[in-house]
Amino acid sequence: MSHDHDSPKAHRPAGAGEPHAFMAHHFNTPGQQAGAAKFGMWVFLATEILMFSGLFLAYFIVRMHYPDMVLAAHEHLNKTAGGINTVVLITSSLTMALAVRAAQVGDQPAIKRNLLLTIGFAFTFMVVKYFEYTAKIEHGMLPGKFYHAWDHGYYIEGSPHIFFAVYFCMTGLHGFHVLIGIGVLTWIYLRAGKGHFGPSYYTPVENVGLYWHLVDLIWIFLFPLLYLVR
Amino acid sequence: MADDKSTHDAGHEREPSYLVAQKGLKSWLFTVDHKRLGLMYLATTLLFFFVGGMAAIFFRTELLTPGPGEISGVLTALGMDPTTSATTYNKLFTVHGAVMVFLVIIPSVPGALGNFLLPLMLGAKDVAFPRLNLLSFWVYSLGALFFIYTLFAGGLDTGWTFYTPYSSNFSGTAVISATFGAFILGFSSILTGLNFMVTIHKMRAPGMTWNRMPLFCWSIYATAVIQVLATPVLAITLLLLIMERTLNIGIFDPAMGGDPVLFQHFFWFYSHPAVYIMILPGFGIISELIAVHSRKHIFGYKAIALSSVAIAIISFVVWGHHMFVSGQSELAGIVFSFLTFAVAVPTAIKVFSWVATLYKGSIQFNTPMLYGLMFLFTFTIGGLTGVFLGTLSVDVHLHDTYFVVAHFHYVMMGGTIIAFVGGLHHWWAKMTGRNYDEKQARWASLFIFVGFNMTFFNQFVLGQQGMPRRYYTYVPQFQQQHVLSTVGAYILLAGFLWIAFYLLASLRKSAAPKEPLPDNTWGGASLEWSTQTPPIEHNFHGQPRVDSDPYNFPQIDRTGGMDHH
Ligand SMILES: [Cu+2]
């Protein structure tokens, strides 16, 4: 083993990346830093998928135990609202991808514009979700012991309180992720305003993009499973 | 590796070590230095090890007599209602289990030794995400605070497994704060695992190929994979449990149409792999100790490395062996039983490789090695009795008896804790720049060995004779064996206190060595020995480069002609 004392810049290997202002001291090259960040993001996404997979499993167990109840209860979800939200999220994934592209080519106005659009779609999603939740609460279609839809003239055979528990857990956790998404999107929007991103440094935009696509993807599974049982 | 082992960084002047490079409390609490974070994990896990250990000492004392004796005496003396001694017992064993699993064993080796050693062994300046590393420590501390709150809010009596429907509908204790604490600790574990995975993938020094990594790094890698893949499932499970308890959502509660066994599936889907989160880092330490202290190239490097990965993979498909008597289908039971046997193969590969490394080695019976040998003895017993419990028909008899208690203590304590203590001695000088008293250390290790086996070996017999676990009372015929166990526990306590004593003594100002300690304490060939003792803030002067593997001991290897490279 030997130690070499030259600055790492003196012989930067291929794929090392261009130097930029956000280099952390413990990396040797910008390429190493970007690679680490991206790999870390993928591992994080894996943990997200596994966390949701527990809820998906719970959903399938409930559906297996009570197929008729799930069928009857899901009719009370608002398919139109769910459909609109699906379109909204898919479109937001497009604007997100455009923002990443803009960062890669250094088109500053396009980064900000597309990030702002993405944030707007995320808010739209939450507003639609708010109206959906309000309706469910008004109809007494609540989880567990708070379920009292019969008081409002709705009769669902079986144990619909479990279906609505699963509904609220899954969409609630997903909605929480959308809120986090709004937070991190705002953060990179502010950074984009300072001109931090360009061809030599765009990892944060890319990673937030990956996160946002995952949030979208999970919804694409939630929507048919919850709203389109039949 | 080249023969400049003992002269670090080819003739650099000594620099201030990471311990003194920055000063003040803040420089510790908000440090992003992996070495300092390692020390902070070390201090906290050892503190909780003491808390969990004392809980065990208390309930072992209760078990000195068959009836509700000792605890009720203490309760009366404290002016409390002595008829609550059964509940008190339940709370004590729950505290012991929950603290030991979530606050001690899971974070101990990765958090303390892993943090300290991984970047040094890889030849990196730090882990990939130093600030995430600090966050992970603070998340751990927050989770620990929830556990401490639980203790003062009346404790917890569900056992560390939180089984429903008792935990969700019946227990009158602080279930929510405890499960929320475990939920938070899970995130700390995930962040650490993620950080280590990325560090190993992206931060290795030039020339440090996967097959030149020290085996400790391989085991940390396998551990990290499990932490990242299994812990999120625990998070969601505990969240559902909290929902069940607060909202009666009806997922686990049979009265509401739910399925309590579903909780067990969820729980063990995490908690079986978690067993390997606990033991794999121990394996890694043992590989280092055995090779360095028998002065011989490790036998079967690739087999040991890949068997860690194999264990990580198999660990995800064996959880049902905790549920043989839960009412799961017989077919599932048979499949889980056979899959469980499969774990024995990679585990045995490791044990045989360590024994083969010892063969014709120049074994040095210093303290780290004594713990290494102790591990081979106790862990093998723990591993083999695991095969008994994985056998469907045998488990029906042994399930929920002291046999199970003895088995997992031989694995968790006889495995992980023994390895941890061995590793602590092995890297003590590197971490602190101090030497402990070797003579005292050897005597204390004898106390640990005798105390441990005295406490737990006869529990195999007790369990086989039908003594159920988690009972505060028992039939009089078991008293002798219980007394033996309790006395063993006292000896164990004495041993650990002794270790704490001489390690702390070595840190006193007056115990500072006159000359700085050599860089390479044991003639090891991995990178952490090539830098200053204790290391400088940025680990190395310049970028280390690696051109051979970490188990070549050229000056000292006496096997003659067995040069592997
Ligand atoms: Cu298991």
CATH level-4 homologous superfamily of chain A = Cytochrome c oxidase, subunit III, four-helix bundle
- Biggest chain pair interface: A-B, 44 and 55 residues
Gyration radius over CA of chain A: 22 Å
Overall strand count of chain A: 1
What is the averaged pLDDT score of chain B? 91
| Unreliable sequence segments of chain A | 4-12
Structural notes for this entry:
The complex is a heterodimer of chains A (230) and B (565). Chain A has one domain (53-227): Up-down Bundle (Four Helix Bundle (Hemerythrin (Met), subunit A)). Chain A contains six helices and one strand. The model of chain A is unreliable at 4-12 (pLDDT under 50). Chain A is elongated, with a radius of gyration of 22 Å. Chain A has 230 residues and is mainly alpha-helical. The N and C termini of chain A lie far apart (65 Å). Chain A has helices spanning 30-65, 67-74, 79-105, 108-138, 160-193, 203-227; one strand spanning 2-4. Chain B is an all-alpha fold. Chain B has one domain: Cytochrome C Oxidase, Chain A (Up-down Bundle). Helices cover 64% and strands 1% of the residues of chain B. Chain B contains 16 helices and one strand. Chain B has helices spanning 25-29, 34-62, 70-77, 85-122, 130-152, 166-170, 175-202, 215-247, 260-293, 301-314, 330-358, 367-390, 392-398, 402-432, 438-464, 479-507, and one strand at residues 543-545. In chain B, helix 4 packs parallel to helix 7 and helix 12 (367-390) packs antiparallel against helix 14. Chain B is globular. The model of chain B is unreliable at 1-8 and 557-565 (pLDDT under 50). Chains A and B meet through strand 1, helix 1 and helix 5 of A and helix 7, helix 8 and strand 1 of B. Strand 1 of chain A pairs antiparallel with strand 1 (543-545) of chain B. The structure holds copper (II) ion.
Architecture blueprint of SSEs:
The complex is a heterodimer of chains A (230) and B (565).
Chain A: E1 2-4, H1 30-65, H2 67-74, H3 79-105, H4 108-138, H5 160-193, H6 203-227
Chain B: H1 25-29, H2 34-62, H3 70-77, H4 85-122, H5 130-152, H6 166-170, H7 175-202, H8 215-247, H9 260-293, H10 301-314, H11 330-358, H12 367-390, H13 392-398, H14 402-432, H15 438-464, H16 479-507, E1 543-545
Helix pairs in contact in B: 2-4, 2-5, 2-16, 4-5, 4-7, 4-8, 4-9, 4-14, 5-7, 7-8, 8-9, 8-10, 9-10, 9-11, 9-12, 9-14, 10-11, 11-12, 12-14, 12-15, 14-15, 15-16
The complex binds copper (II) ion.
